[in-house]
Recover the amino acids of this structure.
């Protein structure tokens, strides 16, 4: 437990620093782009995130469990993952041109920024995201959480520095508008992260050609795990981002921009449970079932408590500051903070339990949960957003979060013959 606690502490420290830098960057981006263009940028980054998940084919999530549990040769998996990272971009490029054929490029690009050049930039960002995900996954699999934290900080720190220099007009390119500069700065930050990862991880990051590629048996193991993780992450990402498109379709860029800001602030609450889940997957993959259940319950309680406390403190601090930080145009964000914070706090339960199910190889449970959450969220989006606009999107998300939490609670308790009371009130020495 002491090793897990230390890893969580390190990871949380870096995650908090990263979130702080990202938060400041989001403020600068919102001010640089304005209310409407910030909404367009939210659509652009949402498309990027979804494609990274869908065309990443679950590799980063699979790497942590497979390498930590010693199920495949790490060097061969690394070589194969690098090859995949280089080729996935070609598929995505084809998809972007397919969107052109159907006059649907607006699902990704703002008006006037859907040329071949912008597609090339998008593919660069996509490939950087895939490769960085693989590098961080190998670090986490080896429980190098200090180094993986530093790697993440390189990206967020570089982006913030570039945005500050642009805001102060120290770095200024006449031919670039604010949107183009923000995207370019993101590309530069991603490249710095890759270089930093290679420098910090060395043997865990540099390909070893002599090791060869995965053999057929190992490839089957990876494929089985990756497909399940891929479906889970892909459906979950759709749940997180589909509401952006639905809101944008029915209510326009202004409402989307407000919702994007509120959602990004709510993600502050997810920091601790996400860190705990990341660490648990690596450690529990090497543990016995009898050790995994009490550890999961212990860290679920801790994550829920800290998430709730974070939400309360964030609400008190952010409510009066939002108009000052983002500008008066974003004042309406304050009205959606409380329900978003409650929903994200409840979603701590699926985050922790999902880590447990991955560590024991029961990824199908997470897949069913992802499908349930997506379907509930999608139905609520179409029911609420056309009538209730911004607040409809918020309550649709909260409803989906509760559905995921209820499902995971039911399955975890049933598999381990526990009562709901046991999870939250039974003394820990009954488990530990």
């Amino acid at each position: 437990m002491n090793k897990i606690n230390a890893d969580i502490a390190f990871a949380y420290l870096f995650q908090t620093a990263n979130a702080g830098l990202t938060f400041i960057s989001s403020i600068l981006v919102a001010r640089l782009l304005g209310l409407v263009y910030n909404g367009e940028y939210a659509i652009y980054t949402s498309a990027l995130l979804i494609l990274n998940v869908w065309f990443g084919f679950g590799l980063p999530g699979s790497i942590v469990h497979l390498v930590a549990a010693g199920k495949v040769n790490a060097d061969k998996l690394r070589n194969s993952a690098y090859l995949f990272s280089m080729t996935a971009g070609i598929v995505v490029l084809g998809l972007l041109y397919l969107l052109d054929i159907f006059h649907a490029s607006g699902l990704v690009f703002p008006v006037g920024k859907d040329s071949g050049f912008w597609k090339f930039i998008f593919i660069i960002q996509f490939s950087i995201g895939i490769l960085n995900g693989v590098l961080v996954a190998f670090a986490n699999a080896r429980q190098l959480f200090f180094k993986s934290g530093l790697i993440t900080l390189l990206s967020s720190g570089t982006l913030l520095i570039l945005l500050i220099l642009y805001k102060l007009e120290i770095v200024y390119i006449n031919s670039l508008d604010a949107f183009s500069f923000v995207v370019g700065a993101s590309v530069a930050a991603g490249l710095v992260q890759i270089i930093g990862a290679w420098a910090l991880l060395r043997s865990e990051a540099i390909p070893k050609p002599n090791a060869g590629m995965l053999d057929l048996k190992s490839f089957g193991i990876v494929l089985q795990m990756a497909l399940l993780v891929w479906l889970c992450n892909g459906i979950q990402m759709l749940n997180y981002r589909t509401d952006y498109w639905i809101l944008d379709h029915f209510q326009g860029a202004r409402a989307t921009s407000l919702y994007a800001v509120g959602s990004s602030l709510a993600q502050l609450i997810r920091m601790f449970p996400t860190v705990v889940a990341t660490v648990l997957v690596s450690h529990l993959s090497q543990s016995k079932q009898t050790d995994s259940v009490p550890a999961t319950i212990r860290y679920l309680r801790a994550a829920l408590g800290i998430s709730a406390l974070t939400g309360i403190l964030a609400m008190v601090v952010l409510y009066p500051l939002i108009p000052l930080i983002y500008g008066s145009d974003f004042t309406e964000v304050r009205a959606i903070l409380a329900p978003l914070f409650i929903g994200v706090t409840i979603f701590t339960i699926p985050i922790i339990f999902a880590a447990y199910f991955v560590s024991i190889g029961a990824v199908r449970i997470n897949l069913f949960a992802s499908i349930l959450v997506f379907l509930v969220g999608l139905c609520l989006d179409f029911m609420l957003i056309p009538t209730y606009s911004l607040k409809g999107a918020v309550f649709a998300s909260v409803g989906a979060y509760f559905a995921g939490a209820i499902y995971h609670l039911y399955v975890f308790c049933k598999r381990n013959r526990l009562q709901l009371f046991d999870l939250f009130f039974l003394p820990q020495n009954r488990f530990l």
